[in-house]
């Protein structure tokens, strides 16, 4: 009875972590879309989110240090600027352009177009040799690309400017996640914990996105009555609280992803992401009134099949790689054990001669 109970507890824990991830991920998508209907400054909103995430990450690191008694990692300036800066810049542009696109497109079109990030992640993984070449990857690319075309073809709520922004964000997202994987895999940096990663990346992300904000929104924000020319204090507090809530959701999203991967696996996160997109589209159609034709739904299904195939290929590759590692460890362990079975002072050749002599008798 103990094993079924453990299996049930593990299953309930996984479901709970997935639901927590869904709450933050779907929640921040709808929250940003709702906020930008009135507050038309997506880049400034992103900058506020980055500040909130940095503060929460710093507080979390302090609490973790007090709890464990071990100091958290702090990168030197040379490593910080050479190793972390490219990842930070790509991440800032990905998030900033994604939020910017909400001014023009629906959640449905955003969700579907953002799914194309898998294509760019595949491309840059092959470029940086993080992914092995596989003929099946061509099928994955064809399915996702054709699904995206079917979804956007003759869409009643299609917007070119928003589509280009989110597609550019997906392209940069491919660079972002490839660089993030390289950053996390560098053991000497010690950034395996995403809280430490978020803490180090946020300042560089802020600096990288700030010039784009000044160019596009700086003057209009200064003349806006939402913040700097506000006439009443309650209105200012309302704007600051709503912006801060989005930052808390963004931090919760990163932390929930870390919990889900650490307690289960990256495969669980990938599979959960597929169903999360389905839930997002259904909620967008029900709550936001997004219109989708039969062809759009068919295109989304084709795209999801491509993503599912990619997840399946990754799972098979990881399983095969784990099997090879297991076999190598067994060989090493056997080679370590066998010499201990030999009699003292006898070499391998002497033992073989004795065995042949015994067999002759």
TrEMBL record:
The keyword Membrane applies. The chain crosses the membrane at residues 12-31, 43-64, 102-128, 135-153, 159-179, 199-216, 236-255, 267-288, 294-313. Residues 15-309 form the Sugar phosphate transporter domain. It is found in: Membrane. Pfam families: TPT. One of its GO terms (cellular component) is membrane. It is a multi-pass membrane protein. Signal peptide: none annotated. The keyword Membrane applies. This is Solute carrier family 35 member C2-like. It comes from Acipenser oxyrinchus oxyrinchus. The lineage of its organism: Eukaryota, Metazoa, Chordata, Craniata, Vertebrata.
């Amino acid at each position: 009875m103990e094993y079924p109970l453990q299996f049930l507890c593990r299953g309930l824990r996984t479901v709970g972590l997935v639901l927590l991830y869904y709450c933050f991920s779907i929640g921040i998508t709808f929250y940003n879309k709702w906020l930008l209907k009135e507050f038309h400054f997506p880049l400034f909103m992103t900058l506020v989110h980055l500040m909130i995430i940095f503060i929460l990450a710093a507080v979390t690191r302090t609490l973790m240090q007090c709890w464990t008694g071990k100091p958290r990692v702090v990168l030197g300036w040379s490593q910080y600027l050479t190793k972390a800066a490219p990842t930070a810049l790509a991440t800032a542009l990905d998030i900033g352009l994604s939020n910017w696109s909400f001014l023009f497109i629906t959640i449905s079109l955003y969700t579907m177009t953002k799914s194309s990030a898998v294509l760019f992640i595949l491309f840059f993984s092959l470029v940086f040799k993080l992914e092995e070449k596989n003929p099946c990857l061509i099928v994955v690319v064809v399915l996702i690309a054709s699904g995206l075309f079917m979804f956007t073809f003759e869409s009643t709520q299609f917007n070119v400017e928003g589509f280009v922004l989110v597609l550019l964000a997906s392209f940069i997202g491919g660079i972002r996640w490839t660089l993030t994987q390289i950053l996390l895999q560098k053991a000497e940096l010690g950034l395996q914990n995403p809280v430490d990663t978020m803490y180090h990346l946020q300042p560089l992300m802020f600096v990288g996105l700030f010039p784009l904000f000044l160019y596009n929104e700086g003057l209009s924000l200064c003349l806006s009555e939402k913040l700097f020319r506000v006439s009443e204090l309650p209105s200012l507090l309302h704007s600051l609280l709503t912006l801060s809530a989005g930052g808390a959701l963004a931090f919760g999203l990163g932390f929930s992803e870390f919990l889900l991967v650490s307690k289960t696996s990256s495969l669980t996160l990938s599979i959960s992401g597929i169903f999360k997109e389905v839930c997002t589209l259904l909620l967008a159609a029900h709550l936001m009134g997004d219109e989708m034709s039969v062809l759009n739904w068919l295109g989304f299904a084709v795209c999801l099949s491509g993503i599912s195939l990619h997840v399946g290929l990754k799972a098979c590759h990881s399983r095969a790689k784990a099997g090879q590692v297991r076999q190598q460890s067994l060989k090493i362990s056997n080679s370590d054990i066998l010499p201990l079975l030999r009699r003292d002072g006898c070499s391998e050749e002497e033992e073989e001669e004795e065995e042949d002599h015994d067999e002759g008798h």
